[in-house]
Design goal:
Structural class of chain B: alpha/beta
Number of helices of chain B: 7
Strand order of the largest sheet of chain A: 2-3-1-4
Number of helices of chain A: 10
Number of domains of chain A: 2
Order of helices and strands of chain B: EEEHEEHEHHHEHEHEE
Shape of chain A: rod-shaped
Order of helices and strands of chain A: HHHEHEHEHEHHHH
Largest sheet of chain A: 4 strands, antiparallel
Helix content of chain A: 55-70%
Helix content of chain B: 25-40%
Largest interface: A-B, 20 and 26 residues
Radius of gyration of chain A: 32 Å
Radius of gyration of chain B: 17 Å
Structural class of chain A: alpha+beta
Strand content of chain B: 15-25%
Shape of chain B: globular
Distance between the termini of chain A: 26 Å
Strand content of chain A: 5-15%
Oligomer: heterodimer
Number of strands of chain A: 4
Largest sheet of chain B: 6 strands, mixed
Bound molecules: adenosine-5'-triphosphate, magnesium ion
Strand order of the largest sheet of chain B: 6-7-8-3-9-10
Chain lengths: 300, 225
């Protein structure tokens, strides 16, 4: 018998074969519940994974392309050093543009911290130069060396210092999400195996009658496997739908895009959600199949 | 079809059967008798491969039972109809579906077969009980349902273990009649029973041979009946 035919037989089933195993209320409810709860959890683990993935990508992109040069110098040297720094930057490969911020812009940057009435002129405020990189980026270490020689008061802040750990944390979070999904899958398999074993044990008498009248083990196993697969499938569908609804009802992401408000699914994320019930079905199919083969092998 | 070659059997204690040889001829009608506990059920189980002899060789349709795997066993069960002494059914399915079960599990569950099923149920006098569940049946009704289930696949051989164990004389005559009719259709019949009256009654309708288990051996019982 071909695999395809077997699979279609499993899904479409034959009503008669299904009735051969008596209804098992307890294990049925257990499987339905376990699959539903696990699917619900998977939705959140998936949301977490996808969101932290997006976050890592965004931080990476936004911060990689820009850096800041800060010049601290006595008032009389400030203009000269700024000019020298701009000259160095303009001749550095990998830098698209460099621009000294105006006094007005610097005041705006500081306003949130010190208020609008800040007497900037009387304070030793460093001059900031905004650097926009090209795609390839520049060689930070080389630039620092040149600046050290030509603009002693310059400090290059290429954001690497705080960008790296953030990216790493987001990546770790995403990994944890996937590990959780794997663990949820394994726990689902374990629970369904237990339920299937209970059902098989409770039906030892039925199995012996079926064998007496010439049923092959594959037929008996199919009757059980089909039941558990369909139950896991429907339980997971319900759990996924509820989980998706819960995620959908979370406060939506704003532009400022905090992590907690960015948990929703986007684009391909919704497609991944649709994979949860069939995957639960596959897990149940494999787990019940193994349990049935083992039990039928032991029963004489 | 069924061939026992100098076999012995023990359940672990002393030998229950020893030096038993027997060849079931196609189309024959046999009774198997012996005191309770002498090993009639054991002998039948050896005949359809549910037990493997502790010594000697059993061949079913040319195959040694020791070399048969589970699927082979399933296939021989379809060729040998068995009426078990304790008539096991699936209690959650109605009589109709229980009787049709051998068809169901072998994938021969066609519409045509289902019209045969109706006829068969009428034939064993269970037409009106087709929708009942097995626990709702009387002892005699259970035995007739078991007989119907044993023959629905139209097997070459029917082995019946005390098919008249739970029924009155009239009903046992009716069941016997069914088995005799099957034999006239060409089926090979082997009935284990300790009901001598049944055997005597059968002799009027069919050419039956009588086997007896006595002192662990199988004997062909003779004129004393
Ligand atoms: N599974 C078993 N394990 C151990 N002993 C068994 C087993 N089945 C049967 N026996 C023993 O083997 C002997 C023969 O049993 P069997 O059922 O073959 O007898 P029988 O001739 O069919 O008896 P009855 O006429 O009462 O049906 C009995 O003593 C019984 O106790
Ligand atoms: Mg017996």
């Amino acid at each position: 018998m071909s695999k395809g035919l077997q699979l279609s037989k499993l899904i479409m089933g034959d009503a008669q074969a299904d009735r051969v195993v008596p209804p098992t209320g307890f294990t049925a409810r257990l499987t339905l519940f376990a699959a539903g709860a696990m699917a619900f959890l998977t939705v959140f683990a998936l949301a977490l994974s996808l969101a932290s993935g997006r976050l890592a990508a965004r931080w990476g992109e936004e911060l990689a392309q820009s850096s800041t040069l800060r010049i601290s110098a006595p008032d009389e040297q400030m203009a000269a050093q700024t000019a020298a720094a701009l000259t160095v930057l303009e001749s550095t490969p990998g830098i698209a543009s460099a621009r000294a911020l105006s006094v007005e812009e610097q005041r705006n940057l500081l306003a949130p911290w010190f208020g609008p009435d800040l007497p900037l002129d009387s304070l030793p405020i460093p001059q900031l130069i905004e650097i926009v990189e090209t795609e390839e980026g520049y060689d930070g270490a080389g630039l620092r060396l040149r600046l050290q020689a030509e603009v002693p008061g310059a400090v290059l802040d290429d954001h690497n210092r705080w960008r790296r750990p953030l990216e790493r944390a987001a990546g770790r979070l995403r990994l944890l999400g996937w590990v959780s999904i794997g663990l949820i899958g394994a726990a689902t398999a374990a629970m369904i195996t237990l339920a299937a074993n209970a059902a098989l044990a409770a039906n030892a008498q039925v199995i012996s009658v079926l064998r007496l009248i010439g049923a092959q083990d594959s037929y008996i196993a199919r009757a059980f496997v089909r039941r558990f697969t369909l139950r896991a499938l429907s339980g997971a569908a319900i759990g996924t739908a509820l989980g998706a609804l819960a995620v959908f009802l979370l406060p939506s992401a704003q532009d400022s895009g905090g992590f907690l408000t960015g948990l929703g699914f986007q684009g391909i994320g919704w497609a991944l959600l649709a994979l949860i019930p069939p995957l639960a079905g596959v897990v149940a199919y494999l787990a019940t199949g193994a349990a049935a083969r083992r039990t039928l092998g032991e029963l004489t | 079809m069924i061939e026992l070659d100098n076999i012995a059997y023990s359940y672990g204690g002393g030998e229950l059967l020893s030096e038993v040889s027997f060849k079931l001829a196609p189309g024959s009608f046999h009774f198997l008798t012996g005191p309770s506990g002498s090993g009639k059920t054991t002998f039948l189980k050896l005949c359809y491969g549910a037990l493997t002899p502790t010594a000697g060789r059993v061949q079913l349709f040319g195959k040694d039972v020791r070399e048969m795997d589970r699927d082979d066993h399933a296939m021989t069960r379809r060729q040998i109809g068995v009426v078990h002494q304790d008539c096991q059914f699936l209690d959650h399915l109605p009589v109709r579906e229980n009787v049709a079960l051998p068809l169901t599990v072998s994938g021969k569950d066609s519409l045509e077969q289902h019209s045969n099923l109706k006829e068969l149920l009428t034939w064993v006098g269970l037409g009106h009980r087709a929708s009942a569940l097995p626990p709702e049946l009387s002892g005699g009704e259970r035995q007739r349902a078991a007989l119907a289930r044993a023959v629905i696949m139209s097997p070459d051989v029917v082995l019946a273990d005390e098919p008249t164990g739970n029924v009155d004389w009239e009903m046992s005559q009716r069941l016997l009649q069914l088995l005799v009719e099957l034999n006239k259709m060409g089926k090979t019949i082997l009935i284990a029973t300790h009901d001598m009256n049944l055997i005597r009654a059968a002799k009027h309708h069919v050419q039956a041979r009588v086997l007896r288990i006595s002192g662990r051996k199988l004997q062909l019982a003779g004129a004393d009946l």
